[in-house]
Amino acid sequence: MSETVPTSWLVYCRPGFESDALAEMQHHAKQQEVSCEPAQGEGWASLTRLDGEPINDLHRKAAFKQLIFARQSLAALPALTLSREDRLTAILDQVKLSRWSFEEIWHETPDTNDGKALAGLIKALTKPLQSMLKKRGALRGKAGARRLHIFWTDGDQVQLGMSFPDNRSELINGIRRLRFPSRAPSRSTLKLEEAWHEFIPREEWDKRLSAHMQAADLGAAPGGWTWQLVQRGMYVYAIDNGPMDKQLMATGQVDHLKEDGFAWEPPQRMDWLVCDIVDKPVRVLAMVERWLTRKWCREAIFNLKLPMKKRWDEVDRCISTLEEALAASNVRAKITCRHLYHDREEVTVHVRLAH
After folding, report:
1. Residue limits of the RlmM ferredoxin-like domain (predicted)?
2. Which member of 58, 90, 277, 294 has the greatest number of CB atoms within 10 A?
3. Which residues pair with 297 in a beta bridge?
4. Structure confidence by residue, pLDDT tens digits, 26-55
5. Catalytic machinery residues
6. Over the chain, what is the mean pLDDT?
7. Domains of the chain, CATH where assigned
8. What end-to-end distance do the CA atoms of the chain give, in Å?
9. Rounded CA gap, 337 and 65, in Å?
10. How far is residue 133's CA from residue 139's CA, in Å, rounded to a whole number?
11. Can you name the residues that pair with 272 across neighbouring β-strands?
């Protein structure tokens, strides 16, 4: 029997954003001059090479950390239809033909109610499959930290994918679940907390998110993002015409200024600018450009609200515009953008100016 190779690039995404994830993938495939057949389902998208060659090179060059709409990125084998009487044999046979070896097995599903309903079936199959793959030598102790992902789209439909260290999410289903802090003024607080986890290595939090720093929160009311900054010990200029949470104001760490966030200028350089204003991306971008080109802050996290269609095109245009504006002003910076789990119709952008 001939060897089976991974010809597909499979990503998970938020349901409803499949076409955006796919458009982003096609952008990378075009850059690498790789012809692919697109496919998508609820909560996932894929590209399959038309020439039957392995997808590994494209998968590696389209680095996960660069991707915006993907929650996970895998080099995948052809999808399998399983027998309901014997679901394991087809999986075992494909692993054997792939000659894959790996240190872990993750069973995952789309982020849908139908996906969650598969939990019982997956639990029943997990230990038997693990045992069989160990006996065959595919699941072993030292395999370059490679991970086998078994992506279940139905009780008899799976696709096997491989992930590699430094080019994947280390979270099941690519989802970071955070507990809502009961004292926070709004659920939007989770967006900033998740952004910190996503963009700032945990070992750098004490340095880059430290007490005695100063931050500006534009469009702050009622204070969901300001609350996170205060928890880190920062002093915050909360800019919003709306009312701020009373408990938050009682901390003495917040200066609430009832001014227009788009027009306000800081009294001195801030350590952080954060902004979750609901407005057109072009307007938010112009304001952030002003802050960054004038170096009014060292780091910034802000959200860009997305249109209903062609969201990838809009995000790509926004990031390119920001990069060009900073370059024109001789401002060196690292820009990263992600569609976070706690985001809805928006993406979160992080910018860190070079020292």
Report:
1. 8-74
2. 58
3. 270
4. 999 999 999 999 999 999 999 999 999 999
5. 305
6. 96
7. 8-171 (3.30.2130.30), 189-353 (3.40.50.150)
8. 57
9. 9
10. 5
11. 215, 299
Per the structure block, which two tokens stand in for 342? 């706690």
User: What SS3 class is residue 24?
Assistant: helix
260 CB-near residues (< 8 Å, 6+ apart): 239, 241
Tens of pLDDT, residues 233-268: 999 999 999 999 999 999 999 999 999 999 999 999
Q: Measured between alpha carbons, how far is 123 from 117 in angstroms, rounded to an integer?
A: 11
Contact 226, 254 (CB under 8 A): yes
The answer to whether 313 and 319 have CB atoms below 8 angstroms apart is no
Q: How many CA atoms lie within 13 A of 2 on its CB side?
A: 2
Give the type of residue at 278.
V
Structural contact between residues 221 and 240, judged by C-beta atoms closer than 8 angstroms: yes
Q: Compute the C-alpha angle 76/77/83, nearest 5°.
A: 125
Q: Are 106 and 47 in contact (CB under 8 A)?
A: no
- Strand ranges (DSSP E) for the chain? 8-12, 36-41, 44-49, 72-76, 80-81, 104-108, 147-154, 157-163, 214-218, 235-239, 254-257, 270-275, 297-305, 333-338, 346-353
Known binding-site residues equal: 188, 221-224, 240, 260, 276
162 conformational bin, left if phi > 0, alpha if psi -120 to 50, beta if neither: beta
* Helix, strand, coil % over all residues of the chain, rounded to 5: 35, 25, 40
Tokens of 228: 């996170």
Residue 188 has pLDDT above 90, yes or no: yes
Which tens digit of pLDDT belongs to each residue from 132-168? 999 999 999 999 999 999 999 999 999 999 999 999 9
Q: Is the pLDDT of residue 231 over 60?
A: yes
Q: Report CA 229 to chain centroid distance, whole Å.
A: 22
pLDDT band (50, 70, 90) for residue 355: confident
Binding residues for S-adenosyl-L-methionine, as ranges, are 188, 221-224, 240, 260, 276
> Tokens 């590696």 — which residue?
60
